[in-house]
Automatic annotation (TrEMBL):
Gene this protein is translated from: LOC113217957
GO biological process, one term: ribosome assembly
Species classification: Eukaryota, Metazoa, Ecdysozoa, Arthropoda, Hexapoda
Function, in words: Required for proper 34S pre-rRNA processing and 60S ribosome subunit assembly.
Domain PUA: 95-170
Cellular localisation: Nucleus, Nucleolus
This protein's record includes keyword Phosphoprotein: no
Entry GO CC: nucleolus
One example GO MF annotation: RNA binding
The protein, known as: 60S ribosome subunit biogenesis protein NIP7 homolog
Amino acid sequence: MRKLSEERTKLLFEKLSLYIGGNVKMLIDRPDGLYCFREKKERVYYVSEKILSLAESVSPDNMISLGICFGKFTKSNKFLLHITALTYLAPYAQFKIWVKPSMEQQFLYGHHVLKSGLGRITENTPKYQGVVVLSMADVPLGFGKAAKSTAECKHADPLTIVCFHEADIGEYVRSEETLL
C-alpha cells in the first residue's frame, strides 16, 4: 500500500468535501486515533495508522486489502466513491435527503429520487450538491447529487427528479464481486 500522490489526494478530498464539507478533517483526526488514506491497485483505503504500522510486516504481494475501501480512481483519473464509504460519510454529511417508505425500494434498485418520493430535504441545499439519502427512520441508504435546490423542490412537479442516484446499499447484493 502506498501513499496517495498530491494530485490524487486533492481529487479524493474534493470528492469527500462535496458530501461532508469541512468535516473531512474529522475523518483523519478522530478521537480513537489518527487515520489515513492509502492506495493499492487504483483503490483507496481508509485505515488507522495503528493498523497500518502493524500491516508493514506483511508482504505487499500477500496483502489483498487493508481497512475500508472508500472508492477507486478511473482510467481518466477521476475518483468514484464506493458504497462502502457510506458508514463514514453519513454522520458528517452536511446535506441530506430523506425518502418516503414507498421510494426506498426504488432507490435501492438504482433509480433516481422523484419529488413524489421525497420526505424531507435539508434547508438551503444547493443544486448539484452531494447528499446522503436516508430513510424516514434515519437509516443511510446511499448517496447522490441534488438535481434541484431546496427552493426548487418546493415548486417542482411530482414526477421531477430531485436527486440523482450515485450509490446505494443495494450494491452490496448487485455488485458483490467488484466491491472490495
